Amino acid sequence: MTTYAIVHGAGGSGWDWRLVAAELQARGHDVVAPDLPCEDDGAGLAAYTDTVVQAVERAGVGRDRLVVVGHSLGGFTAPHVAARLGADHLALAAAMVPRPGETGSEWWEASGYQAAMRAMKAGTEDDTRRPSAATADGEPGAAADDDEPGAAADDGEHPSRIQEAEGEAWVVETFFHDVEPHLAAEALRRTRKQTMTVMTEPWPLAAWPDVATSFVLFRDDRFFPAVFLRAMVRERLGLTAAEVPGGHCAYLSQPKELAGWLAAVPSR
């Protein structure tokens, strides 16, 4: 039996992963998916890590192995959790992959994301389904200046603000385009504020943890496009990303496929 410790993305919650959790539990596994303190201005990467570590320890679940899962911004926290708990595997799902000393705000340009989005903009006359901007928190943000396509907002936003600026339809088309409407509506309702503290802290690990690592991208992701993630994963992790269908929130649209991939990741 495996215990899966899930680190959700910016402004999210453990609820986001409930369908994947149900699939894994049906296979006889345990799932721990705590809510990170993303609304707390005083909470940084250490607090995020403590939250997940303590949730796993409190759960007291029996296990043969531990797999830590990080989604989107969760890619900054999940490696810390894996190192602290001596995880058997680190599974990254459409996640940001940091380098030592890099802040979340710096990641957008340093990872090649901005260049990839500018290239997509230049090569597509009508690319209305592509996100017009990234944000410092790894989730929806304010539209970029037209003079700099794909530019990231320095201050960051969260979904409630982008809904005001761009409209809820933009958020759905970017993040929930393949999610059942009732689930998309509930996910939007449950969105939490994401503070910027974690994005201003340099990633403190001196190197990637000595934990077996796998990465899965979502082929229909409109926020972290597959072409960008394939290149980033090769460059930063030396891995070939696995691929499953679905958009950025494939945990809601393709839970069976995502759970199947997680259940198959090796221990070492």
TrEMBL record:
Residues 133-143 have a biased composition (Low complexity). Signal peptide: none annotated. The keyword Acetylation does not apply. Keywords: Hydrolase. One of its GO terms (molecular function) is hydrolase activity. Gene3D superfamilies: alpha/beta hydrolase. Residues 7-259 form the AB hydrolase-1 domain. InterPro entries: AB_hydrolase_1 (IPR000073), AB_hydrolase_fold (IPR029058), Sec-Metab_Biosynth_Hydrolase (IPR052897). It comes from the Bacteria. It holds the Pfam family Abhydrolase_6. This is Alpha/beta fold hydrolase.
